[in-house]
Structure formats: C-alpha cells, structure tokens
Amino acid sequence: MIKRGSIINPEIQAVLSSSNRKEGIKKLFADMHPYDIFVLCEDLDNTQIAECIRALGVPAGIELFEQFDDDRRKEIFSCFSGEWMADILEEMSHDERADFVKNLSPEKMEEILPLVARAERIDIKKLIEYKEGTAGSILTTDYASLPPNISVKEAIEKIKLQAFNRETIYYIYVIDSDRKLLGFVSLRDILVAPSQKLIEDIMHKNVISANVNDDKEEVANKLSDYNFLAIPIVDNDERLVGIVTVDDVVDVVIEETTEDIYKYGAAGEYIDYMKANPFNVARQRAFWLLFLIIVGSVSAFILQKNTYLLETVVALSFFTPLLLGAGGNAGTQSSTVVIRGLAVGEIEMEDVFKVIKKEMSVGICVGTFMALVASVMASWLDKDPRLGFTVGMAMIFNVTLATSLGAFLPILFKKFKLDPALMSGPFITCIVDVVSLIVYFKIATIIFA
Amino acid sequence: MIKRGSIINPEIQAVLSSSNRKEGIKKLFADMHPYDIFVLCEDLDNTQIAECIRALGVPAGIELFEQFDDDRRKEIFSCFSGEWMADILEEMSHDERADFVKNLSPEKMEEILPLVARAERIDIKKLIEYKEGTAGSILTTDYASLPPNISVKEAIEKIKLQAFNRETIYYIYVIDSDRKLLGFVSLRDILVAPSQKLIEDIMHKNVISANVNDDKEEVANKLSDYNFLAIPIVDNDERLVGIVTVDDVVDVVIEETTEDIYKYGAAGEYIDYMKANPFNVARQRAFWLLFLIIVGSVSAFILQKNTYLLETVVALSFFTPLLLGAGGNAGTQSSTVVIRGLAVGEIEMEDVFKVIKKEMSVGICVGTFMALVASVMASWLDKDPRLGFTVGMAMIFNVTLATSLGAFLPILFKKFKLDPALMSGPFITCIVDVVSLIVYFKIATIIFA
C-alpha cells in the first residue's frame, strides 16, 4: 500500500508536464490498484486528475474516478468534454453511477443523459428512482445471470463473456425469460460440476433474496448473517432487479453506526461536518438542546419551591451538581450498554425483565458505593452528620433510578417501534435530574424537619 | 429466509424422535443454508443439535456447528464422542477452529488434540498462538494457492481440487517453494485468460498484503478501502501465512464500534452483558464513576466557597442544574461529532484549528440562543433582572467552553496517541461543570456586589 503524502507526488507532476503524458501516466500507474492511484492523485488539481483518468482510459481510469467521493467527482467531471462524460457514465459500475447522477443538477443531467447509450440511460433513470435508504438505492444491475436449461460447459462460456463488466461473477443468478429468479450457482459450484450437467440441476433453488423496498440496513445484516458475497434483490413479482455486494455492506454498517452515535450524543441528524458552516451546525444541534433545557427547567422550579430549605441549610445546594452528575453518568453507562445491546441483537425483547432487574441491582451496588464516597465528602465539608446522610440516601436512590431508567426507556422505545437510541445519555440524565431533585429535597425535609 | 420461532420447530422434534432420524433430518434440511438451519435449531437441546450435526455429516453438519457462538459450541461439543470431536476439528474452517480451541480448557485440549490429524493439529497450534487483536488472530490458513510456472489450464485443474475445502477460491495466491508471496490472480482473471498462458504472466505482481502482527482493525480497513474479498497475511519474511476474508471484516467493524460506543458512554471495557452478574457489571462501571465523582466533587468546594453569595441570593442555586445540564449536553454533542469524525477519517489532524474554530462559533451561536431562553426563565422565577443577566452571561460562556473543549480534548488525545473516545460526553461534562461554576459565581459576585 502507498501511504498518503508519498514522495511519488512530484513524479506525477513531472510526468504530467512532459511531452508524452499519456504513455508516462500509464507506465507510472501500471499494475497499481485503483485505490493506490487514488491516494497518489488525491491532492492534484481536478484538471490534472481528469488528465490521468483520460490517460488511463477504460477501465483503469473509470476505476480511479470511482474512488473519489461524490462532491469531488462532480468537480472532476466538469473538466471533461461531453463525449468523455458520456463514456464515464457508460463505463461506471451501475450503483456508483446512480449515486453520482442523483447528485447532479437537473440541468447537468439533461445536458449529459442524451449523450449516453440508450440502454445505460434507462438503467440510470430506473436506479435513481429508488427511495433513499432502501435496497434499491444501493443495488447494482451489473450482475451475472444464466438461463436454467444450459449445460455447465455452455455456462462457462457465457460467464467468460460477462466477466469483463459485471460487479461479480462469483455468484451467478439463474433467471427465466421473465427475469424471475429461479436459483443461484456460485462459480465454485460450476467449476467442480461435470461439464454435461444442466445448470438447473446444480443450482441452489432455495435462494435467499431481499425485496427492492427493504431497508438497506436489514439487507446488509442479512448478507452478513449468511456470509454471502452478494444478495439478489427482487421486485414484488420476484423478478431479479439487481444485487447488493458485500463491499457495500461495510459502507452501510459504518454509515448506520454514525447515525446511531449521533443519537447517543443527542447531536441531531448527520450532516457533512467539514463542509457545513457553524450556523447550520448550530441550528441542527439547537433543537435537542432546547428540548432538553425545557425539560431541565423543571429543576429550577423544584429548587425554587424549596427556597426555605435552601436558605436554612445552604449546604444542600453544594451537593446538587455532584448528585446529578453521578446520576447522569450512571444512567449514561446503563443506556449505552442497553442501546448497543439492542442494536447488535445481544439483548432481545424477551430478555426485558432480566435486563431491567440486572440494571436495578447494578444501580443498588454502584449507588451504595457512590453514597459512601459522597457522604464522606459531605461530612468533611459540613460538620452536620444529617447532611452526609441526606446526600448518601439521595445518591443510592438517584443512581438506582438512573440505571433502571437507562435500561427501561430504550427497551420501552423499542417496544413501541421507536428508535431506542433516542433514549441515550442526555435524555436519561435530563429525566433523572428532575426526579432526583424532588427526592433529594423530600429526604432533606424529613431529616432537617 | 426463515424467521426465528418458525412453526417448523415441532417438525424437527417429530423427526428427531422418529425411527429413521438420520434420513429425516437430511431431508428436512435439504438445500437449506446453514444459517437457516441454525435459526431453526437454535432453541433445541444441545444433545438434539449434536444429533442434527451428526445426521447432516460433512460439510453441512460442520457448517451448522460453526453458526453457534463459542460458548454454545462448547456445550454442543461435549455431547460428541472423541472421534466426532476430532472430525469436527479437522473439518472446521481454520479461523473458526482456532477461535474455538482457544476457548477450550487446557485439559480438554490435551484430551482432544491427539485425536486430530497431525497437519491439522500443527495448524491449530500455530493459529492459537497469535496475539489477540492482530491480523494473525483472525486469519485462516485454508486459502487457495498456485505455483507461478504452470499454465492457466493446469491452474484450473489445481483449483478444482482445492475448491472443496478452501475458504475462498476466488482469490488465489501465487507462492514459490518457500511460500514467499509472489502475486495473486482472481478466478475471474484465470477464467478469461488464454489457457496456454503461464500464471506468472497473468498474475498481479503488485500485491497488497498485511503483516501478521498488524492490528486487525487496520487490516479490516485496508480490505474495505481496496474492496477486496480477501487480503493475504504475510510474516516478517514476506511468506504467506494465511488470508483474512471480507466476512470477518464486518465482524471486526461491529466489534470495534461496540468498544468505541462503550467509551462514549464511559461504560468501561466490553463484557458479555447477558452472562455477567450484576456485581461484576457494577465493578466494571464503578471505576469511571469514581473518577468522575472525584473530579466533580470540586464543584461542591466551589459552591461552599460561595456560601455567602448563596445565602444572600438563594435564587442563584435554582439555576445551577439548568446551566450545568446545558453545558454538558452541548459538550456531549460536540465531542460526539468530533470523536466520530476522527474515527471514520472525516476529520484529519490537519483540520485541527478549523474544527476548534468551528466549534467555538457553534458554541457562541447556540450559547446565545440558550442564554435568551434561560434569561427569560430566570426573570419569570425571580423578579430581579440581575439574575437573568447573570444566568444568561454564564450560559454563553459555559456552552462555548463546552463545545470548544468537546472539540479540543479529543483532538489533543489523538495528538498524543491516546484514544480520542476517552474524551467523550461524561468527561467533557465533568470538566465543564467545574469551570462553569467558577465563572457563574465570578459573574454573580460582580453583578450582585
């Protein structure tokens, strides 16, 4: 692998300004993986990259183009002539192409699409219509397929013809003349089968597929559960419309995890952080902050209601941050473990009571420990032993409530088909704060009465 | 796909208690994917599962066995005779086998290993010695390989022979007699090449590999960057020792994400939650809680130092939970975005100043907005306009500090090669709490003087 910022960069510059650019570039990048070429070219100007792509030609140049993200692709794309633009669109892998075209402006689309071969144009138009987040939005139509009634020998010849422009030829789907999915064979199956046998006799008939409208996360999980290299995607009439390949699954997993993590941090929807301006970032975060401050403002009312107590025992207010902080942290821990457990299937809905009971027990253990620490601190700051007792009792209650709610609320959300990740640290903390303050002052009222 | 709890379960029970069990089971599960059989068998007794595995034989039974997690495998394994145990170990895929054997007790290992064929025994012993977390710990030795100096035609014959017991035959590694890695060919390359050509003439010489001691997360990222189905793993002398396949990458990504998420929630190291008892869970979480309560206890001292102020303006204490809550939430948001950005490479170390500047701007925007909300609330609870002003000013400072530290501390940690995820919500909150209280009372001292 070539590291970013490798010294070969001036070499590329030199070749690009030489008289025999095309041959020079071809030689420089010979037998290199597109990802390595990408790493080397990443910091060049868009026009220079376009030049490299032209020099590398089909397929190496197209593969290089596919390595860039959509925004960069757009910039590089605009350095090409109309004819080259059409070439690129015709040669790109079908799923990458659909993603790319989706992000072009309607004017740009209208300008280029007529230049693209008809069959490819129809494919683009079909793919960009699938709804974001569905299997349709990540599928590719360049899969390998076979009819059922040919021999293994004929099949190998047919596969050879398809080998150059298919995303994978290791899984081959068997379809009838209506494109109905009948079965699948792996290239491994074909390779070891007697050459006179018919495909329909060696194919797996019990084929696992997903519907084009299924959630892409579900499709990714299915593919990974079955350890497949690709999964066929069918429409409502069981007709094959495309495949989702394993390399897309890793991307889906990373993307979905980012969404989950943003929810853990109450940070709103994911936006392209490096490109967004501060005002947009602020606007996107303000919603949850406002929601939390409104719930949290109840705490101010509770404290105001206890003005008399706060005036007589001012030391009570010394410990509110400590108490609420500990509850918040314990609740964050427990909701983190439960939300992640639900997401990866470690915790299933039938374990509900077991989990809540466990978190309650954890809360009592941890709460007692924290209560000891807090009481010692309270006795040190204030000679009155009643204060240490009040803080300790409130701490046990507070931490136990926090761990219990940290388990209960995400499970409750899941039960009602809401996203459990919404009940993460900040929300649990906010709710626990309010309840804890009420209990703290109730205990104090009794003790100091 | 078959859903969990499918009605076919009683059918399995019926077949298992019939006189012709073996044939019955074979017929019931004919042409089914091992994952589907696993879903159907999951809730059976261990002895019944062992029976299914025996009936299905090699390879279907072994593939079924591999679907269970290590703990369940151990239970099922103990239902077999010694001979069957040896058969299972000989037939399992090599990486799964190493993982499984690693978790057996030393006595059990000593009991079974002598029954296993010598070559397989050596393989097991070699694989279980690789350090946890390295490429070695997830590699498999059942890869397909070829010598360089044979023709494509001969190669196809050799691959056919390897097809039955290799993890993948789609990537084939070319090695010399010393096992030195010379190149690789895909089955696709072989299929389309003229049959008289030599492998060394069609192989890719610029082969991307990883070292056996590399971090497994790095290897997973590399494989996914290059969109490979497998990546060869070499020792320090560039000799091929095994491959890591793409299906393991998804597992690695999910596992590493769980570790990260636990850090976000200050929930300590990952432990098997459903199996751990509450006391162990509590012990594992108590460390960070204790750490946070100790840092947090400084807040009690700050409040005590301001006793006079709290006695004269008791309303000041009404707003501490609200103020600290808002700071904590804003800091959690910002650290969430920055930590995740660093993890997926969206934020790079050269963007440091840009990110900190952005978070500071976000803090000023959001802080001003929150200050308005809080001031209105303060004026409503207490007629004195000085209170609203104090709370508002403190809020702007507090939120800006929180978002700035939420960006700065994870980046600082990364700079010093510490895990940025350690500077997540709970820690940022804890630090911001202390500083904010100092500032709040400083402002109050000036305003109410």
Your description of this structure?
2 copies of one chain form a homodimer. With 449 residues, chain A is mainly alpha-helical. Chain A folds into 3 domains: 9-137, MgtE N-terminal domain-like (MgtE N-terminal fold, Alpha Horseshoe), CATH 1.25.60.10; 143-245, Roll (CBS-domain), CATH 3.10.580; 297-447, Tetracycline Repressor, domain 2. The first copy, chain A, is 62% helix and 7% strand. Chain A contains 22 helices and 6 strands. In chain A, helix 8 packs across helix 10 and helix 14 (216-225) packs across helix 15. Chain A starts with 8 loop residues before the first helix and ends with a helix. Residues 1-7 of chain A have low confidence and may be disordered. At the A-B interface, helix 11, helix 12, helix 14, helix 15 and helix 16 of A face helix 11, helix 12, helix 14, helix 15 and helix 16 of B.
